[in-house]
# Entry
Amino acid sequence: MSISRILSLALVASLAACAGPRMHNKTQTAMSPAGVSASTAQKWLAQPLRGKCIVVDPGHGGKDPGACAVDGSREKDHNLTIARLVAQQLRDAGAEVFMTRSSDKFISLDERAEMADRHHCDLFLSIHADAASNPSARGATVYRARGALAASSNCGRELLGALHQAGFDHRGLREAGFRVLMGHSRPSLLLECGFLTNSTDAANLNDPDWRARISDAVCSGVVAALRG
Ligand SMILES: [Zn+2]
# Structure
């Protein structure tokens, strides 16, 4: 099979795994240069995140509901719904994925951080939804740790780029001292998907199509950052 044929198939496979437009652009870029080895092309064809380990962390849970939305829904439930979608997308792309919780259960911040080191993950990705006293505040935000590892910064830029290209409102890549970012030695990001205190963002978080689209974008950003 020719390299161009393999890469064409890889494009189809990658788009099937992660339907975001960034994936399309990245794959097109990868197809243009000469000298891409057949083994690399085959790896993309197989699954771009094969061999990678990712811990997906749905924020809050159990006795800790997180923020409360304008419609009365709770952050912990939104986080789990989106985290499940993201985890499935990453598994479809070949990653080994662990979730810090897969039900409405309280897990301490230290226990979550410990999972990152225990699994020696390539990325610890915490999923949250924001709240603010100003109801006009809206949009997604990507956080990395203060003094973040280069891998975290790179992944943060790719994740933000994927959200931007997919048309999501966002507030950029920021730094924070969150325990789940600082309490372990692995690359880490925290995504605030939007503001539960904003009526537009809250409606989006309740929309299955929107949730599927943001999960696609997150997966595309992670693939762009972690694929070999
Ligand atoms: Zn939260």
Summary: Strands lie at 53-58, 96-99, 123-130, 140-145, 170-176, 188-195. The longest strand covers residues 123-130. The chain has two domains: 3-46, 53-226. The pocket of zinc ion is lined by residues 59-60, 66, 75, 128 (CB under 6 Å).
